[in-house]
Specification:
CATH superfamily of the largest domain: DnaJ domain
Helix content: 25-40%
Keywords: Chaperone, Cytoplasm, DNA-binding
GO cellular component, one term: cytoplasm
Distance between the termini: 64 Å
CATH topology of the largest domain: Helix Hairpins
Low-confidence stretches: 97-108, 120-132
Strand content: 15-25%
Shape: elongated
Order of helices and strands: HHHHHEHEEEEEEHEEEEH
GO molecular function, one term: unfolded protein binding
InterPro entries: DnaJ_C (IPR002939), DnaJ_domain (IPR001623), HSP40/DnaJ_pept-bd (IPR008971), J_dom_sf (IPR036869)
Number of domains: 3
CATH class of the largest domain: Mainly Alpha
Pfam families: DnaJ, DnaJ_C
Number of helices: 8
Largest sheet: 4 strands, mixed
């Protein structure tokens, strides 16, 4: 069995923050997900990514893994002809709260390396807790995703969603059911954050409380705005005369209002104008950036063609001068 470097799997340094772990995983998961990737080893790569993410995003598992990695680096691992074996008692002093099924993928699909570390450790701790605590066990937490609009992040809203969830039926057998829930989306929530619905996870055992449902917030594509962190970008069409002479133009904002923006004289396509604090809410809030795009009137009438001819005479221009022609 080979020792796995989870940081290398995600392309991270060992000092990576939780946010860096999350971003690296999401980027690579989009690249190697078997539903979209054409790579021959996409399924295996996705399993490795899920496994690394499961360990590094969990504080208890990451602390234990880091301690083991340091021990391995000092030559304290049980390396032999049979490969890596975790040293006896390597996990003493660590408690792993998250159980199977709560990571980004079912942990039964993870490698022998993962199972040798956390599978046995969690089984020992679960057995210890079952011997020392009454059997009123809290239900597992569930995770799902919810897609909201940019307007929802600014103003808040309420949404009704339907989820397909695994539940235990009256006959004691698991089965899928559809659940419809009303979700209150608080103003100011960001992509990647979670909305917690208390008591909507798996039922508890022996009178224990039900787990919670955590909804990961994702932003739906918008017809006007492109999201980059807390900043928003919008293409702003202007006429040739507005770009050349300067103008005051009306611009819609994500909050639903309109503001007047000054287009400077001699503006060029691609010029970026900033509306401070008009992006997504935060501390500090993001900005709204306007990218100018000069819209050319069609030369579909005699008057329009004459106007273009007069413009060519009055303001001669060689836009290919930089090409040497």
């Amino acid at each position: 069995m080979e020792f796995k470097d989870y940081y290398k799997t995600l392309g991270l340094e060992r000092t990576a923050t939780e946010e860096e772990v999350r971003k690296a995983y999401r980027k690579l998961a989009r690249q190697y997900h078997p539903d979209v990737s054409k790579e021959p080893d996409a399924q295996a790569r996705m399993r490795d990514l899920n496994e690394a993410n499961d360990v590094l995003r969990d504080k208890e598992k990451r602390a234990a893994y880091d301690a083991l990695a340091e021990r391995v680096a000092r030559g304290g691992s049980a390396e032999s002809g049979g490969g890596f074996q975790p040293p006896p008692g390597w996990d003493e002093g660590f408690e792993f709260h998250r159980g199977p099924g709560q990571g980004p993928a079912d942990q039964e699909d993870f490698s022998e390396f993962f199972s040798s570390l956390f599978g046995a450790a969690q089984q020992r701790q679960a057995h210890h807790r079952s011997q020392s605590q009454p059997q009123n066990l809290r239900g597992e937490d569930h995770h799902a995703a919810i897609e909201i609009s940019i307007e929802d992040t600014l103003q808040g809203s309420e949404r009704q969603i339907t989820l397909r969830a695994l539940e235990i039926g009256p006959d004691g057998q698991p089965g899928f059911v559809n659940r419809t829930l009303n979700v209150k989306i608080p103003a100011g929530v960001h992509p990647g954050q979670f909305i917690r619905l208390a008591g909507h996870g798996m039922p508890g055992q022996g009178g224990g409380a039900a787990g919670d449902l955590f909804l990961e917030v994702r932003l739906a594509p918008h017809k006007f705005y492109r999201v980059d962190g807390l900043d928003l970008y919008m293409t702003l069409p202007v006429t040739p005369s507005e770009a050349a002479l300067g103008a005051q133009v009306q611009v819609p904002t994500p909050a639903g209002s309109r503001v007047e923006v000054t287009v400077p004289p001699n503006a060029r396509s691609g010029l970026k104008l900033r509306l401070k604090d008009r992006g997504l809410p935060g501390k500090p809030p993001g900005h709204l950036y306007l990218l100018l795009d000069i819209a050319l009137p069609p030369a579909d009438t005699e008057a329009a063609r004459e106007a273009y001819a007069q413009l060519a005479k009055a303001a001669p221009l060689n836009p290919r001068h930089h090409l040497g022609v």
